[in-house]
Design brief:
Blueprint lengths: L3 H35 L10 H5 L1 H8 L1 H20 L5 H34 L8 H36 L9
Helix pairs in contact: 1-3, 1-4, 3-5, 4-5, 5-6
C-alpha cells in the first residue's frame, strides 16, 4: 500500500505542474509583449523614440524572457512525461521541435532588442537614423511576427492533435 502512495502523488503533481508552468509562461510572455506593444516596438516603422524614453522598461521586459523560457521548457517536459509510452512519435517530434524553435526565435528576437539597447547606450547620437537600427528593428519584427508566430501555431496544432489523439492530457483513457 505504501508503494502506491508515491505513484498517486506523482500522478497528481504532473498535471498541476504543467498547468502552473503554462500559466507562468503565459503571464510572463504577455507582460513582455504588452510592454513591447505599449512602447511601440510592435510597429516596424517605429522611429526609435522608445530608446530615448523607455529603454529601461524594455530592458526589464527582456529580463522576463529567460524565466518565460524556463516555464515553457518545464511545460513541454511535463506534457511529455504525462504522455509517457502513449506518445505518438510523429506528433511529439513536431511538438518538441516546434516548441524549441519557438523558444529559440523568442530568445533571438529578445537578443536583437537587447543589442539595439546596448548599441544605443554606447552611441546615442544618430543611432536611430543608422542602417544598424533599421536592420535590427526589421530583424526583430521578422523573427517575432513571421517565424515565431508560425512555430507557435505549429506547436499549438501539434499539442492539440496529441491531446485529441491520446486523451491522456486531461486524464482520459485512450480509445
Amino acid at each position: 500500500m505504501k508503494q502506491e502512495t508515491p505513484l498517486i502523488h506523482a500522478q497528481l503533481k504532473t498535471p498541476r505542474a504543467a498547468a502552473v508552468a503554462g500559466i507562468l509562461f503565459s503571464v510572463l510572455l504577455i507582460a513582455e509583449l504588452f510592454v513591447f506593444e505599449f512602447l511601440g516596438l510592435a510597429d516596424p516603422q517605429e522611429t526609435g523614440a522608445w530608446l530615448r524614453t523607455s529603454s529601461n522598461e524594455v530592458a526589464l521586459a527582456l529580463n522576463f524572457v529567460p524565466f518565460a523560457g524556463i516555464a515553457f521548457l518545464w511545460f513541454i517536459g511535463v506534457l511529455r512525461d504525462r504522455l509517457g509510452e502513449l506518445e505518438d512519435q510523429f506528433f511529439t517530434t513536431v511538438f518538441l521541435g516546434s516548441g524549441l524553435l519557438f523558444l529559440a526565435l523568442l530568445f533571438a528576437s529578445a537578443a536583437v532588442v537587447g543589442g539595439i539597447i546596448l548599441t544605443y547606450a554606447t552611441q546615442p547620437q544618430g543611432f536611430v537614423d543608422s542602417p544598424t537600427f533599421a536592420f535590427g528593428r526589421a530583424l526583430f519584427h521578422e523573427l517575432i511576427n513571421l517565424y515565431a508566430v508560425k512555430m507557435a501555431s505549429v506547436f499549438m496544432i501539434s499539442t492539440s492533435m496529441i491531446g485529441c489523439a491520446q486523451g491522456s492530457l486531461h486524464g482520459g483513457v485512450r480509445t
